[in-house]
Amino acid sequence: MDWDKVLVNIGNHFDLASSIFVAPRKGIYSFSFHVVKVYNRQTIQVSLMQNGYPVISAFAGDQDVTREAASNGVLLLMEREDKVHLKLERGNLMGGWKYSTFSGFLVFPL
Fold first, then answer.
1. pLDDT of residue 68
2. Could you give the CA distance from residue 100 to residue 64 in angstroms, rounded to a whole number?
3. Which strands, in side-by-side order, build the sheet including 20-22?
């Protein structure tokens, strides 16, 4: 997924160009996302990927609703240089950072 704005990026470990977060150190990290679908008669699926593998997903699929949101969150054990990003598996999202967000932070260093 492509993001159009970064609100906070202390340490610059999230790369806006690639939309990938790279862990600066081993630890427990918290990630959450909130996405909004654009059109009715479609389902969206978004997965949080860690090192290329899906960890959690969120779905929104009400066929009679023009805009519908899907959210999820997780705590992950990450090694230094592990990568996390969101992947839009299905559907279309409403554009702009005000409608779809992705957040992550270090909870506990190991």
1. 81
2. 20
3. 14-15, 20-22, 83-90, 44-50, 53-60
Residues contacting residue 67 through CB under 8 Å, at least 6 positions apart: 36, 37, 38, 94
Say what the pTM is: 0.89
Alpha carbons 54 and 23: distance in angstroms, whole number: 17
Mean pLDDT confidence for 19-44: 90
Is position 2 within any domain? Answer: no
Please tell me the total count of domains within the chain.
1
Q: Per this entry, what is the length of the chain?
A: 110
DSSP code at position 19: T
- In 1-110, at which residue ranges do the beta strands (DSSP E only) sit? 14-15, 20-22, 27-37, 44-50, 53-60, 68-78, 83-90, 101-109
Q: Is residue 35 part of a domain?
A: yes
Give me the domain span that covers residue 79.
Answer: 12-107
